[in-house]
Amino acid sequence: MTYIEKTTLDREALVEKILQLKKERNAVILAHNYQVKEVQDIADFTGDSLELARKAANQDADVIVFCGVDFMAETAAILSPEKTVLLPAADANCPMAEMITAGELRVLKERFPDAEVVCYVNTSAEVKAESDICCTSSNAVKVVESLDADQVIFVPDRNLGSYVARFTDKEIMPWEGFCFVHDRITPEDVKTARQLHPDAEVLVHPECRSEVVDLADYVYSTSGMIEHVFKSSSKEFIIGTEVGILHRMKKDCPDKLCYPLSSNAVCITMKRTDLQKVYKALETLTPEVTVPEDVADRARLAIQRMLDL
């Protein structure tokens, strides 16, 4: 037996164990679009962070295994306080979410008392609790336009804030946070990719820098990218976000060719989850993610205000 054959058999056995434990625990497995392909393949649902948190809240399950990063599991715990939420990789953090704290946001609110606070879903529960409303990359413009205030404190992503500012007359005051995966994509990357694939459409995430957005054909959230590729009559696409999404695109749209805008667009914390950790989480019901009730109640208001839109 070759090493590859043995590895395949080991993986298949592990998958069987995971599926059996999932049944015994009455669990649902959620995987973000940026997860490694093996984890995506065993998930009940794949999607973006808020999409998955809403799925979790609507499932008749006792346990949610959230294969993503910390703020995503927190959001699921906020929306499903009666369920056990597990984050298989305890060290799977989001660097951008850590670029703003609740204390820093409180200082901003004191300096600009007439402003309303919009927090990107990529934030901690404590920051959500200090915010007026949450947003995602797909609804950020709609959220900002729904507000009465003329000044908007936008945390934590400066690039998404800059993108929103293109479509509103409100004064956007962005925090200087960023996603290191998207922020490192350059205009040169776009030009090189177009030279390699001249017939391909360029899709980028609004967490990219403005100069990259300017060169794109379309700007979408991860779910928006998948929907566009699925529905488009075009056959080739250059995808400007984390490379993990290409696996799902290949599965959902096998007749389309999707190329990474940058092979360096890899989120190392998203890749910390593997099959062994998913199995261990189901076996031990750890690491469990919980949010203090007072924080969760206030954060839920900001999330619900967005959902009500």
From TrEMBL:
Its cofactor is [4Fe-4S] cluster. InterPro entries: NadA (IPR003473), NadA_sf (IPR036094), Quinolinate_synth_type2 (IPR023066). One of its GO terms (biological process) is 'de novo' NAD+ biosynthetic process from L-aspartate. Its EC number is 2.5.1.72. Iminosuccinate binds at H32, S49, Y120, V121, N122, S137, H205, P206, E207, T222. Gene3D superfamilies: NadA-like. The keyword Cytoplasm applies. Binds 1 [4Fe-4S] cluster per subunit. It catalyses: iminosuccinate + dihydroxyacetone phosphate = quinolinate + phosphate + 2 H2O + H(+). [4Fe-4S] cluster binds at C94, C179, C267. It is an enzyme of class 2 (transferase). GO terms for cellular component: cytoplasm. It holds the Pfam family NadA. One of its GO terms (molecular function) is 4 iron, 4 sulfur cluster binding. It is found in: Cytoplasm. Pathway: Cofactor biosynthesis; NAD(+) biosynthesis; quinolinate from iminoaspartate: step 1/1. The keyword Transferase applies. Keywords: 4Fe-4S, Cytoplasm, Iron, Iron-sulfur, Metal-binding, Pyridine nucleotide biosynthesis, Transferase. PANTHER family: QUINOLINATE SYNTHASE, CHLOROPLASTIC (PTHR30573:SF0), QUINOLINATE SYNTHETASE A (PTHR30573). Catalyzes the condensation of iminoaspartate with dihydroxyacetone phosphate to form quinolinate. Belongs to the quinolinate synthase family. Type 2 subfamily. This is Quinolinate synthase. The gene is nadA.
